[in-house]
């Protein structure tokens, strides 16, 4: 756990006069001695006064779980929908993309570490209604919650998705899928399409290396399928870590058992953040695509290197 205000306190959104304001979280319970337990994700962080959870953006203030970064947006951009990546949802369209701060995992290869592992990035403060208005103004048919981890801002995402659906925008989620059922169901209720990271098929590696929970991610995927969300999955293929053909086959077989309509992206890794492992070879990636295609008809290579 961390104390609220680590880093530069002058940049905390709640200290700004034009802030969207503190908003109380939905997914928590009050404990004794002024502590709270966050119920958003499998970490179940127990927080004393002033402490934030592993995600850094959910904070115990006066015995209640508050969201001082509610509406604090680290990025607003218009992207091709294929960049999410979503290849089978509104193909050829563009999506209005919004990023946040914080994450409940600590992936050492994160490509967005400057916003997932730090609260110091510049932010723009928008209410859910203002964000939907901006998305409508862009002319895009969809609004994507992406870049860092949207689920640690589930309350904001849910309200934004609700308003977006009323405005006839499609809702897109790009996420690690590491959330408990209550929050997952509440978000997925309004979600039209999602790309979920299925980072590995090894449960211990998920826990030790990423601080994640594979069973929770699997159940998130199951919920999305049950609720009729268009779903695509991404696995980053890291040499020596997530490139075992047997694991790729097992994951693809499991996904196929849920629905053969699921789309799988196998993306080539490149050295990033704390990882200095050599990049994924082209031939390795293409061989793993062939492995997964034995179970799923739609499997795509991503970040494909030009040569081995």
List the helices and strands and how they pair.
Elements: E1 2-3, E2 28-30, E3 36-38, E4 46-47, E5 51-52, E6 59-61, E7 64-66, E8 72-73, E9 75-80, E10 94-99, H1 113-116, E11 124-125, H2 128-138, E12 142-146, H3 154-166, E13 170-175, H4 181-188, E14 193-197, H5 203-210, H6 214-226, E15 230-237, H7 245-258, E16 263-268, H8 282-292, E17 299-302
Parallel strand pairs: 10-12, 12-13, 13-14, 14-15, 15-16, 16-17
Antiparallel strand pairs: 1-5, 2-3, 3-4, 6-7, 8-11, 9-10
Please sum up the structure shown.
The chain is α/β, with parallel strands linked by helices.
Record keyword descriptors for this entry.
308 residues, alpha/beta, TIM Barrel, 8-stranded mixed beta sheet, 3-stranded antiparallel beta sheet, 8 helices, disordered N terminus
What is the second-level CATH architecture of the largest domain?
A: Alpha-Beta Barrel
Task: Tell me the structural class.
Answer: alpha/beta
Indicate the percent of residues in helices: 25-40%
Strand order of the largest sheet: 9-10-12-13-14-15-16-17
User: How many extended strands?
Assistant: 17
Mean pLDDT: 93
CATH level-four homologous superfamily name of the largest domain: Aldolase class I
- CATH class type of the largest domain: Alpha Beta
Q: SSE string, helix = H, strand = E?
A: EEEEEEEEEEHEHEHEHEHHEHEHE
Helix count?
8
Q: What are the low-pLDDT stretches, counting only 5+ consecutive residues below 50?
A: 1-20
Instruction: Please report the distance between the alpha carbons of the first and last residues.
Output: 42 Å
Major pleated sheet: 8 strands, mixed
CATH topology of the largest domain: TIM Barrel
Radius of gyration from CA coordinates:
19 Å
The proportion of strand residues reads 15-25%
Shape: globular
């Amino acid at each position: 756990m961390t104390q609220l205000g680590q880093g530069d306190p002058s940049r905390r959104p709640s200290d700004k006069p034009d802030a969207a304001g503190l908003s109380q979280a939905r997914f928590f319970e009050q404990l004794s001695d002024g502590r709270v337990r966050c119920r958003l994700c499998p970490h179940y962080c127990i927080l004393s006064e002033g402490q934030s959870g592993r995600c850094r953006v959910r904070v115990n203030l006066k015995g209640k779980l508050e969201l001082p970064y509610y509406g604090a947006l680290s990025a607003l951009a218009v992207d091709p929908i294929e960049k999410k990546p979503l290849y089978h949802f509104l193909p050829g369209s563009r999506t209005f993309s919004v990023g946040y701060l914080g994450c409940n995992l600590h992936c050492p290869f994160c490509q967005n570490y400057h916003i997932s592992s730090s609260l110091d990035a510049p932010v723009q403060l928008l209410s859910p209604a203002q964000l939907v208005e901006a998305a409508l103004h862009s002319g895009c048919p969809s609004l994507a919650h992406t870049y860092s981890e949207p689920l640690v801002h589930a309350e904001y995402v849910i309200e934004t998705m609700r308003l977006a659906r009323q405005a006839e925008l499609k809702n897109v989620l790009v996420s690690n899928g590491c959330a408990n059922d209550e929050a997952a169901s509440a978000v997925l209720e309004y979600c039209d399409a999602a790309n979920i990271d299925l980072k590995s098929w090894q449960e211990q590696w998920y826990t030790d290396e990423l601080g994640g929970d594979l069973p929770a991610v699997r159940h998130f995927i199951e919920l999305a399928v049950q609720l009729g969300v268009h779903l695509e999955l991404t696995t980053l293929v890291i040499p020596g870590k997530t490139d075992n053909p047997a694991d790729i086959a097992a994951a693809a077989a499991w996904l196929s058992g849920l629905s053969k309509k699921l789309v799988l992206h196998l993306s080539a890794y490149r050295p990033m953040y704390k990882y200095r492992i050599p990049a994924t070879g082209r031939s390795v990636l293409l061989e793993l695509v062939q492995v997964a295609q034995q179970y799923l008809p739609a499997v795509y290579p991503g970040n494909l290197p030009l040569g081995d």
